[in-house]
Design brief:
The structure is a single chain. The protein has 411 residues and is of the alpha+beta class. The strands form three sheets. Strands 8-7-11-5-4-13-16-15 form an eight-stranded mixed sheet. The chain has a five-stranded antiparallel sheet with strand order 3-2-6-10-9, with no helix packed on it. Helix 1 packs parallel to helix 4, helix 4 packs antiparallel against helix 5 and helix 6 packs antiparallel against helix 7. The two termini are 24 Å apart. The N terminus and C terminus are likely disordered.
Length: 411
């Protein structure tokens, strides 16, 4: 005979349908997360643009002008840079748009340049080192003052050079032989800081108060770096001119909130399945009968955890948001099941399973490199526990009433 309410097979079917419905709910939450992340990225981009975005010193050109000896035309001679030494000292501050924030930096860049000019006059061209131009290829929006360029001890104020595509530069005299140039730039920027090694011998040293730099933004890693909670110092030594290989760093957020949220939703399926498995085991061994609606409401509470986590994490720390969301969902479901079944031990057992589940997820999120391994082991353990506890269950007889033999004394 069939059970008066539901057979086990029908109950499992209903649970499967509920899992499908809740999985659709997870997709909706994932879409909401994408929308919130887009809003965040837009705010960060606006902050970056207002700060001048990435500072890049793409090139430093030194040009000596001359004339053609037979024609009335101007000749230009690019002088190679023998050494290029840069020091940058950067300070970080947080800028806000609404509830969103992003780091921006200000500071000073000092570039010391040496070059050796040898007379290049010939039958066709005559050059005059007293008519020279030094140009910086960088964006004007990253400069907070006119750069100061010192040439052999004489100081000049750089400005826009229209005939050089509006690059920043200065006309100044050079001399035959060795020339020493020093460039001082007060800058601002966001996201990344990049310098191009333009000399035959190059060195770069960056000091910044940001504790989590990313050096893989460039093609050359620093030769030395010292990173602390108060900031970092990094240096490069590059024995060649390499205009295609910029060096520098990018601002890395120590915890990318939306990546953590994305990864947590990835495990959302477990937060539906595991509580349902525990509830089903309670039905098998604790002599309770739960309606599919009970499964649906408990599953919905587990889904709401992700909404709470997402909403609170935009205002307080991720850890605090996680505690709020997990405690809220665990207490709600455990209290509800205690009330429905009239058994406190059911609620306590459910609370224990939630503690294990949420602790697992938290450490999995914090251990990015081992998240997949932790997840695989956890699923294996859950499956092993279910198989162990149900090893003596006669599934074919569930949902059927035991047949009783007639009592001979009553026959």
């Amino acid at each position: 005979m069939k059970n008066s309410k539901h057979g086990v097979g029908l109950k499992i079917l209903f649970i499967g349908i509920i899992v499908l419905i809740l999985s659709i709910g997870l997709l909706v939450i994932r879409g909401l997360l994408s929308s919130r992340e887009y809003t965040y990225r837009s705010a960060v981009n606006d902050i970056s643009q207002s700060a001048g975005s990435t500072f890049v010193l793409r090139d430093l050109d030194v040009t000596i002008y001359g004339k053609h000896n037979r024609y009335s035309s101007i000749a230009e001679l690019d002088v190679p840079i023998s050494s290029f030494d840069v020091e940058a000292d950067l300070k970080t501050s947080m800028r806000h748009i609404g509830i969103y924030s992003a780091p921006v930096y200000t500071g000073q860049v000092v570039a010391k340049v040496k070059l050796n000019y040898e007379n290049k006059d010939n039958d066709e061209f005559t050059y005059s080192p007293s008519q020279s131009l030094i140009c910086l290829d960088t964006d004007n929006t990253n400069l907070t003052k006119h750069p100061i360029i010192k040439v052999n001890g004489t100081e000049y104020t750089a400005d826009v050079i229209q005939k050089k595509d509006n690059k920043i530069g200065v006309y100044c005299p050079l001399v035959e032989g060795e020339n020493e140039i020093e460039v001082l730039m007060d800058i601002r920027g966001a996201e990344t800081f990049m310098i191009t090694p333009v000399g035959g011998q190059n060195s770069l040293q960056i000091t910044c108060d940001w504790p989590s730099p990313g050096f893989t933004i460039g093609k050359l890693l620093p030769d030395y770096r010292d990173i602390t909670d108060q900031g970092f110092t990094a240096s490069w030594n590059i024995p060649f001119s390499s205009k295609d290989n910029r060096v520098g760093f990018r601002y890395v957020q120590s915890v990318d909130l939306y990546k953590l949220l994305e990864r947590s939703i990835t495990y959302g399926f477990l937060f539906i399945i595991v509580p349902f498995i525990v509830m089903f085991l309670f039905e098998l061994f604790a002599n309770v009968n739960l309606h599919p609606m009970n499964y649906l409401l408990c599953g919905a509470a587990c889904i709401v955890f992700f909404l709470l986590l997402m909403a609170f994490s935009e205002h307080v720390s991720f850890t605090a948001s996680y505690i709020i969301g997990s405690c809220g969902a665990a207490i709600l479901v455990s209290t509800y099941l205690s009330s429905v079944t009239k058994q406190l031990k059911i609620g306590l057992g459910m609370m224990g399973s939630f503690i294990i589940l949420y602790v697992y997820l938290f450490f999995s999120l914090k251990s990015e490199d081992y998240a997949f391994l932790i997840g695989a082991v956890f699923i294996f353990i859950i499956l092993a526990l279910v198989m162990f506890f149900t090893r003596n269950v006669d599934w074919s007889s569930l949902g059927k009433k035991k047949e009783t033999l007639p009592d001979p004394a009553q026959s």
